[in-house]
């Protein structure tokens, strides 16, 4: 009898050990499976419609390429909210998260990531000229761990649109941030193209958003219209720019489609969502091993969309031709 009880006890113990062993194996398997899912770390400089659209386009493109957040990829998102002091610690956090690929949305974010690693692949979103920003050796052959998508605007086409809408205007003022490396490159290129198009150009740099309202008051007395480049500081303060410009009846020509929706008159710009889609595709190519940053050229859009704010056009007494209405995306009111 005692032997039977002992054998039964041994059998029960064996079953418990066996079940525990199976659970441990299963748990380890699930843990390994989780670790197999790649991680993409995203650092966005600030929240505003243009950069938010880039992020959304990137997430959608990744899902379409088979990398759905929480299922086949883990997305770790950080937003600096225009606070430069946070970008370094956020970059380090994303690296500590074992990110397989990093994404920098806007120049300050991309520079912060690049300062923290020369090995983890970095994909750029919304950087006009990565070479002048010190992120790549050249836009054609980056040569390191960084590549991505340029948001360089088609300035020549923008100047042609201004001539159609504001044929009497000759004095253009460029409002931009002196704190952003990317802006200096843009202002140089924009100034050259505007001069070739027959405009006199004046430059108005500001160190932060705090000085924008005052600078706009100055510009209102000196220029015929205001041009705003793809500058994160300006994009973050677009409502202030539009409010002061409207008070003085001065048109604002931004370089980004979402800034027209916020009250700019018109632009020929890159669709920010599509920019994000291209960014997502480049991330997916790196994750699948189809490409490497060092040998992948910076992607630049060759054409843009015409976007016109109908309400602002009416405010400035501009009659839109039927041909222009057919070509353009009309925002801020319906065309007549």
Automatic annotation (TrEMBL):
| Top-rank taxon | Bacteria
Organism from which the protein derives: Candidatus Vagococcus giribetii
Which SUPFAM superfamilies does the entry mention?
A: Periplasmic binding protein-like I (SSF53822)
The entry's protein name is ABC transporter substrate-binding protein
Q: Which Pfam families match?
A: ABC_sub_bind (PF04392)
